[in-house]
Amino acid sequence: MTDFTISLIAWGGYVGIFLLMALENIFPPVPSEVIMGLGGIAVAQGRMDMMPLILWGTAGTTAGNVFWYELGRHFGYLGLRPTVERYSRWLTADWHDVERLHDFFGRHGQWVVFGFRFMPTFRTIVSLPAGMARMPRVRFLIWTAAGAAIWNCILGGAGYYLGTNFRELDRFVGPAAVGIMVVIFLLYLWRVASWKPHR
């Protein structure tokens, strides 16, 4: 996957960065840590500049999150009630939880969207409940872009620091991403087994 990412970046340049970051947030083909890290390495090699890299990467991240936001906004949280009531065990949530989440987003949605930008997996998933709670679009875009820009600066800077040793980035980030996903999956199984609905 790293070779594919390198080839797309070399072929598409900043547009390739945009497309990869957008896809990563819709259906993750490769972690953003690798995409922006390799972009930072390209900066170190003189093939890119850091500012356009961050701008295109942040635009791609935001575009990918808008997909999930609009999907959630289209269906709305009330349309979820039959699904939630039927599959509450596998969702580990009942309608009471959905209403609490909706109210919470109404009060603190911008901070949740911003904070989750720094968390693997959840940084994309959070866009769905934000849309369902009908968080104002402008607020969603601002806080998503702000969090993404900071995170992309960190990743691009890390890639720049590593210079030409891009294999080092893939060697550490790849297993870390897989490990985090395994832990999240195990925690989900534990929650399914131990979850009890509200009375």
From TrEMBL:
Q: What is the name of this protein?
A: DedA family protein
Which residues, by range, are in coiled-coil regions? none
State its location(s).
Cell membrane
What organism, scientifically named, is this protein from? Sphingomonas oligophenolica
Q: Where are the transmembrane segments?
A: 6-27, 140-160, 172-190
Is this entry keyworded Transmembrane?
Answer: yes
Recorded hits in InterPro entries, A to Z, give: DedA_domain (IPR051311), VTT_dom (IPR032816)
| Protein's membrane topology | Multi-pass membrane protein
Pfam families to which the protein is assigned, alphabetical = VTT_dom
Keyword hit for Metal-binding: no
Enumerate the spans annotated as VTT domain: 30-160
Chief place of localization: membrane
Instruction: Identify the keywords attached in UniProt to this record, alphabetized.
Output: Cell membrane, Membrane, Transmembrane, Transmembrane helix
